[in-house]
Design brief:
It is a single chain. The chain is an alpha/beta fold. It has helices at about 10-20, 30-35, 55-65, 80-85, 115-125, 140-145, 160-165, 170-190, 205-210, 220-230, 230-245; strands at about 5-10, 40-45, 70-75, 90-95, 130-135, 150-155, 190-195, 215-220. Strand 5 (about 130-135), helix 6 (about 140-145) and strand 6 form a beta-alpha-beta unit. Helix 2 (about 30-35) runs parallel beside helix 3 (about 55-65) and helix 7 (about 160-165) packs antiparallel against helix 8 (about 170-190). The chain is globular. The protein starts with 5 loop residues before the first strand and ends with a helix. The relative contact order is 0.15. The structure holds pyridoxine-5'-phosphate. Pyridoxine-5'-phosphate binds near residues 12, 103, 196, 198 and 219.
Length: about 250
């Protein structure tokens, strides 16, 4: 197993700030290029059904501008499938989406919608996209993701990060243990393992230390931290912490 851990920088919330005023600034594509120069191994963007942050034109521009792979996050809808098939990004990450939620709250219910999802992702795989499924650290969901033919799973780290932030150490440790065990399990099935959601400088290292985890996708904290220290130093510090945890 190679020991390099990739960092995918999610630039959705640069678009959130832009959209607060409805103009063109700050430009998420400029942030993505800067992240790339700062050492991001990939850029992640979530085109939500309600377009509350990233817009269709951002995806067009990212596909045009990026030298690193784009991880295109999307709900399993016919509209998003068409957009993904038009662009054929390096990776497509299927996430659950509810209009009323503030952020992606849980993992995808793969086990319950196995047949539908298998049909849904087949054309994406055929088009050459690496298909990733965003799920909770739950053996049933991982087995289902494997059965439907996903190449990658991304484990939802939100519950672990929330417990860490709240100082609930018992829950934090239990969630971390689930993430550890399920990373090993998913890897044993031949799935590539990614992780993300809610990661900060304070809680990234225990997850970064799991040898099976190949990629972390981090957005909200990095964009927030960029306000104080700038995007490049913010990314450098995350990279340093990830590398230190891996070593
Ligand atoms: N991974 C997935 C699948 C996500 O949906 C998100 C949030 O859009 C992230 C990672 C990044 O989470 P955060 O913005 O909390 O770092």
């Amino acid at each position: 197993m190679t020991n390099t851990l990739r960092l995918g920088v999610n630039i959705d919330h640069v678009a959130t700030v832009r959209n607060a005023r409805g103009g063109n600034v700050p430009d998420p594509v400029r942030a993505a290029k800067l992240a790339e120069e700062a050492g991001a191994d990939g850029i992640t963007a979530h085109l939500r059904e309600d377009r509350r942050h990233i817009a269709d034109a951002d995806i067009d521009a990212l596909m045009e501008a990026l030298s690193v792979p784009l991880n295109f996050e999307m709900a399993a809808t016919p509209e998003m499938q068409q957009i993904a098939l038009r662009h054929k990004p390096h990776a497509v990450c299927i996430v659950p989406e509810k209009r009323e939620e503030r952020t992606t709250e849980g993992g995808l219910e793969v086990a319950r919608e196995e047949n539908q999802l298998a049909h849904y992702i087949a054309p994406l795989r055929d088009a050459g996209c690496r298909v990733s499924i965003f799920i909770a650290a739950d053996q049933r969901q991982i087995e289902a993701a494997h059965r439907i033919g996903a190449q990658v799973i991304e484990l939802h780290t939100g519950a672990y990060c929330d417990a860490h932030a709240e100082g609930d150490l018992k829950t934090r440790d239990a969630e971390l243990e689930k993430l550890r065990a399920m990373s090993t399990f998913a890897h044993s099935l031949g799935l590539e393992v990614h992780a993300g959601h809610g990661l900060t400088y304070d809680c990234v290292q225990p997850v970064a230390a799991f040898p099976e985890v190949m990629e972390l996708n981090i957005g909200h904290f990095l964009i927030g931290e960029a306000i104080f220290r700038g995007l490049t130093p913010a990314i450098h510090e995350m990279r340093r912490l990830m590398d230190a945890a891996r070593a």
